[in-house]
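Aggregate trends can hide what the representation actually does to any particular protein. The sequence in question and its structure tokens are set out directly beneath this paragraph.
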Amino acid sequence: MDFSVEIATDQQAEQICAIWESGWHDAHNGIVPQRLCELRTTKSFIQRTADNLDNTRVAINAGTVLGFSIVKEDELYQMYVSQKARGRGVAQALMSDAENRIRTNGHNRAWLACAVGNQRAARFYEKSGWVNAGPEVVDLDTSTGTFPLEVWRFERSLNQTNVG
């Protein structure tokens, strides 16, 4: 599948939001508290997409967003791939781009939070060279304030020897 990884634009926000909302619920329903699922509304994804657009990269093919990643300092904050693009190298390309962005930001170690029980994501991270550093509680932003959630913290050294 041909695609490129590019800086996200305002015109792509709707597609990013749709992938994020669908992917989040697909990955998290049944493994995170029901209250958090209820707080992850379409309106919340629209707002979060707008708030993070400057830090977002998209994988795109012929004007269609296939997936996206958001980097915040040394954190791979979010990464989702549309169902139709899974298994086609999109996630790996977004991951490599995110790691390079974090390295360029001056960090030699990256981290991400993975919901405890999200085995599909955990397998992908491990296959990509990330290490599960164990459980940690993070405060997620929601429309009603923060929501504490236990996650698996994955980390990866970004030394020049593992540049992909």
Notes: The longest strand covers residues 145-157. The helical segments are 13-28, 34-39, 42-52, 90-104, 119-127.
